């Protein structure tokens, strides 16, 4: 997709006052389907950004209001934060919360994010993906589409698999598939009020509910099917995740199952992976918990980003080596000893006696 910047983030005035020490800019781009999409950016006002963070919002959500606190917190911590409203979400064009193709969401985000990375001023900056809920699925798929462009991901209560206790029957899926070709935009998919399920504190929940840019209806048929198929695709390929990531999940979440996050953590092949589970916290970790708990969550995120923004590998494209956990050091040490034993056995078979290893590692001398 070629991104046409109709009114780019650097060219527009702010639509809302930013927090102290933060610059906020917004505008629109036009995607390859001719649709205008809203984009925005928060960045530190008085310093060069440490790195770039690209936000992927959740189902029915948007960036400029709902994700504002996220953007400002990360900008105050020294990051340039870029967001885009998906087709049919927030201030972007399209039928409200209608997802005719999840691939479109992924392609739109990928194209816009890469266009920001490729700007001259950003060439040497590292880039991280940030996804909440359905945005976690978008972030995972963006990383799969362009794996060398990212240093890591922050995944907050991500949608990446269907919980067994919520998996619809084959009959339901077959019916949904048939209806999606006949009445794709109809809002008839049953379900509980997601706001009541996702957001814990009533006063913050009602403030979120009052945001007119958010979606408040039942899921559309095609949207529900696309989300289901995307979750199934991710579930089958969790072992292909190799990027560094931080996974955060409230243990009392009933929207996306924390057990699914554990499955992602256990299955992913990333050397550098961290997981934070928060007892008693719900789905809206960054929006509707106590101020103290939200501060704790963001401190965990910022600490993780800071560690990977100042680590040594070379390019900002994500091709450098990943930081390694202590548990991986043990595995590497075991592999190294096994290799030495195999080398010795090979030399015995070749020469009839155990040969000497030039430059071989001595016990306790291995360095990583």
Automatic annotation (TrEMBL):
GO MF, one example: lipase activity
InterPro entries xref list: AB_hydrolase_1, AB_hydrolase_fold, Hydrolase_4, MAG_DAG_Lipase
Region listing for Disordered, in residue ranges: 309-368
Low complexity bias (residue ranges): 311-323
Record domain Serine aminopeptidase S33: where: 47-286
Gene Ontology annotations for the cellular component aspect, listed alphabetically: membrane
Pfam families per the UniProt record, alphabetical: Hydrolase_4
Gene3D superfamilies xref list: alpha/beta hydrolase
Name the record gives this protein: Serine aminopeptidase S33 domain-containing protein
Organism of origin: Marchantia polymorpha (Common liverwort)
């Amino acid at each position: 997709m070629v991104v046409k910047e109709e009114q780019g983030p650097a060219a527009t005035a702010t639509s809302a006052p930013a927090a102290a020490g933060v610059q906020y800019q917004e505008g629109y781009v036009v995607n390859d389907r001719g649709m205008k999409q809203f984009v925005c950016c928060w960045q530190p006002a008085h310093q060069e950004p440490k790195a770039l963070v690209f936000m992927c919002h959740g189902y029915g959500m948007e960036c400029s209001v709902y994700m504002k606190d996220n953007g400002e917190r990360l900008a105050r911590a020294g990051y340039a934060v870029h967001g885009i409203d998906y087709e049919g979400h927030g201030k972007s064009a399209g039928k409200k919360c209608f997802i005719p193709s999840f691939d479109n969401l992924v392609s739109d985000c990928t194209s816009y994010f890469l266009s920001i990375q490729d700007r001259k001023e950003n060439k040497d900056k590292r880039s991280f993906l940030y996804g909440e809920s359905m945005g976690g699925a978008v972030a995972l798929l963006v990383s799969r589409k362009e794996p060398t462009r990212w240093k890591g991901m922050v995944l907050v209560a991500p949608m990446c698999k269907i919980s067994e206790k919520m998996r619809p029957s084959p009959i339901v899926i077959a019916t949904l598939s048939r209806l999606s070709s006949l009445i794709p935009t109809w809002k008839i998919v049953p379900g509980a009020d997601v706001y009541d399920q996702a957001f814990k504190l009533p006063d913050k929940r009602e403030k979120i509910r009052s945001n007119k840019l958010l979606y408040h209806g039942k899921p559309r048929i095609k949207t529900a099917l696309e989300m289901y198929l995307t979750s199934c695709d991710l579930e089958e390929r969790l072992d292909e995740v190799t990027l560094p990531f931080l996974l955060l999940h409230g243990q009392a979440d009933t929207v996306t199952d924390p057990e699914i996050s554990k499955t992602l953590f256990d299955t992913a092949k990333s050397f550098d992976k961290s997981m934070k589970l928060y007892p008693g916290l719900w789905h809206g970790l960054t929006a509707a918990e106590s101020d103290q708990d939200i501060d704790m969550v963001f401190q965990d995120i910022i600490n993780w980003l800071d560690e990977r923004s100042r680590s040594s590998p070379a390019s900002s494209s994500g091709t450098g080596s990943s930081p390694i956990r202590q548990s991986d050091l043990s595995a590497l040490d075991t592999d190294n000893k096994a290799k030495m034993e195999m080398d010795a056995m090979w030399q015995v078979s070749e020469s009839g006696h155990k040969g000497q290893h030039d430059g071989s590692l001595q016990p306790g001398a291995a360095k990583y």
